[in-house]
Amino acid sequence: MFSQDKPLKGAAVLVTATLLAGCGSLLGEGETEDAIVIGTTSTPSTLDPAGAWDGSWELYRNIYQTLMHFPNSSGSPEPDAAQHCGFTDTVSSVYRCVLKKDLKFSGGNPLNAEAVKHSFERTLDIAADSGPAQLLQSIDRIETSGDRTIIFHLKRPDATFPLVLATPAASIVDPAVFPADRLLETSEISGSGPYRLQDYKDGEFAELVRNESYNGSAEVKNTGVTVRYFKDSAKMVEDLKKGEVDLTYRGLTPEQITDFEKNRTDYPDIKLNEVYGTEIRYLVFNPQHEEVSDPAVRKAVAQVVDRKALVRNVYKRTAAPLYSMVPGGITGHTSAFYEEYGEPDVEKARQTLAQAGIGGKVRLTLWYATDRYGAVTADEFGEIKRQLEASGLFEVTLEGREWRELQKGIAEGKYPVFGRGWFPDFPDADNYIAPFVGEENALGAPYEHKVLTGTLLPRSRKESDRGAVSDDFGRAQEILAEDARLLPLWQGKLYIAAHDDIAGVEWCIDSSTIMRLWELDRKKSW
């Protein structure tokens, strides 16, 4: 269990507790016979892997293939579309993969080395504001040898590159369908993953059927899955209780989770599965805006925010206080913000502002997504506003925007303070630091730091033994705490509510907390 009273440490676990009602599913438009129906509030922003670095990856993992993948209960990547991969030099700067024989896309075209090269180069060339090009920035050039060999020449040593190749950022797409110079604008896609996208309606559903031409590591245990996208978690839970949804993933509110936990006898035919998650929530300060350009303002906020009260009052202890951008359960995690700021202390915050010559109330506007991380996000920011204003040091205005609009504004650097969530690309401390720093990062707020971006991260990427770089990541987390440009708030647990005729729930989440739909199956007998 998480401790709510101490900085979080721990290892990944999955616990199952028996809970809720009804079984079977009622098929709607766009659903295959006996398809397992998944409910989620995490709606894809685009079907093109070059255009999304967000929850769209949940769908990509199941319809596109990658060279590498994360096997069950492991954060060490293994070949998927590749037959084998590995560095060919001693400094982790040249990476070679050989594809399996006779791979092809669901539309029938061959998946060869040129298709892989096309997939990576278009993501880098398009460089969509909301896309994952930054995650591939270590690539200098790609060459092919014959139909099956791909060689990645990296700009600098990067021992995390095999991990990157296991993420949906490295999804392989059909060159005949996905143009080299722009994002795909239709839902007529062709992938080589475990499923084929048979039907799709933006914001409503994705109908997946088994891809009979798939040749990869996954053992597909069902005939098809229909994913239903909900804007309202209340409607999602209502449909779960009625049996119109078999399983819910992402979007349950703390109140709904607590209801399931406390009223097990009311819902005897549903199990609530609690997964130790590596999802985090945090605030971003953009110093290019005058109101947060002074480090004293950012440090005062860090000194006032009470994470324990936040997870207690808003999340009903379904999350845990987080004192570092690197969460518990990830090698290299520390509690740098706790060490730097300790317990919330208004007087220390007042002194910090006074020493910087800042008097009177500091005015802040906090921006957040209204439709991305669940309905409780508004309550979360309401609690942060309450805490800051209760200190007497801040006057806070809240502004909520739909995700796509907020995402656009973030990319344009519009907001001085905004909330973000982060689901890991891969289970390594690097992935909780590197995407947020550097001249071009995922936050639209350049963050250059000579030691952090010039020494610590480059040095850590030369080390293939990821456990050996804890000291570098420890110092990196100290720098993040000192600068207070990113403020970690909490680390989430994942909850999956499923009817008890659904098997495979314990295996359906990979080490980067993305759902592998192929692990789910409907139990055949009772």
UniProtKB/TrEMBL annotation:
Do you know which InterPro entries this protein is assigned to?
Peptide/Ni-bd (IPR030678), SBP_5 (IPR039424), SBP_5_dom (IPR000914)
Q: Which UniProt keywords apply?
A: Signal, Transport
Q: Where in the cell is it found?
A: Cell envelope
Q: Which Pfam families match?
A: SBP_bac_5
Q: Which residues are in the Solute-binding protein family domain?
A: 77-441
Sections of the chain in a coiled coil: none
| Entry keyword annotation includes Nucleus | no
**Protein family (similarity comment):** Belongs to the bacterial solute-binding protein 5 family.
- Kindly provide the name given to this protein in its UniProt entry: ABC transporter substrate-binding protein
**Source organism of this protein record:** Streptomyces desertarenae
Q: What is the lineage of its organism?
A: Bacteria, Bacillati, Actinomycetota, Actinomycetes, Kitasatosporales
